Amino acid sequence: MAIVIACANQKGGVGKSTTVVNLAAALGQKNKKVLCIDSDAQGNLTSGFGIKKKNLDSTVYDVLLGKRSIAETAVPTKFKNVSVVPATSDLAGADIELIDIDNRSNRMKMAVLTVKAAYDFILIDCPPSLSLLTVNALCACDAVLIPLQCEFHALEGLSQLIESIRLVKQRFNPAIDIEGILFTMYDGRLGLTHQVVNEVRKHFPNKTLQTVIPRNVRLSEAPSHGMPVIYYDKSSKGSESYIQLANEILLKHKTDVRGQK
Ligand SMILES: Nc1ncnc2c1ncn2[C@@H]1O[C@H](COP(=O)(O)OP(=O)(O)O)[C@@H](O)[C@H]1O
Ligand SMILES: [Mg+2]
């Protein structure tokens, strides 16, 4: 049965899509079967895997509205063991359209349940908001991975997100857990970075992941080539850090780390 992880933070540009693309690729290389679900109308996850949006038959939008199943919508990528349920700008209207639909918070969950047995990991990339799309991802997941950019206002947004997770836990998904807070675009030369990291570790002990993702230019270049960084530049710091994240997550779930020397 797949472990379902939602990658969420209502702030934009903190590394959610980058994390899903690269964590998925690293898990796939370790012989895990991975499904990524793009739940952001920007479709950065979809394009990050080099999937052309023009040629798509159906997308996550059709899945959420119950017109297509995930099995019908998922497309294989060129990268080992990774498939994607893509998103296009169609999804921008979904928040409004879902309001009038039964079970509007559980649409993603219902869809994910039908394929949970077929994968080891299902990673959901959330939009930069606490909208119905994010609520759907939180209801569908076992755990939330929270990328956090080490900047001044990081903590403010984090408290709000943790409160949303608490509400979803209370109302819809009692088993939801926090997979971990992941520091992204980490720059150890900046004093502010250490300040933010210490503050977050103080407020959320045991919730911060050991792996830290450095600011790395290869990570920002890879999407324009439609490739995860471990395929674009395997020896880069960005690549190493996402492989380390995959190992940490596998260890956390006590899955054997196959393929690792
Ligand atoms: N560790 C990193 N180092 C350098 N650039 C990064 C890193 N992580 C993300 N980026 C870049 O920052 C931008 C925002 O990242 P993205 O993953 O799209 O954020 P989100 O999905 O949270 O909006 C993108 O241009 C991405 O390539
Ligand atoms: Mg994104």
Plain-language structure description:
This protein has one domain: P-loop containing nucleotide triphosphate hydrolases (Rossmann fold), CATH 3.40.50.300. The two termini are 26 Å apart. It is globular, with a radius of gyration of 17 Å. α1 crosses α12 (237-252) and α6 runs parallel beside α7 (132-140). The protein has an 8-stranded mixed β-sheet, with helices on both faces. It has helices at residues 16-29, 44-48, 60-64, 70-73, 94-98, 107-113, 132-140, 154-171, 191-203, 217-221, 229-232, 237-252; strands at residues 3-7, 34-38, 75-76, 82-85, 121-125, 143-149, 177-186, 208-214. Helices cover 40% and strands 17% of the residues. The longest helix is centred in the middle third of the chain and has 18 residues, at 154-171. It is α/β, with parallel strands linked by helices. It has 12 helices and 8 strands. The model is unreliable at 256-261 (pLDDT under 50). Magnesium ion binds next to α1. Adenosine-5'-diphosphate (ADP) binds at residues 12-18, 44, 128, 184-185, 213, 215-216, 219-220, 223, 238.
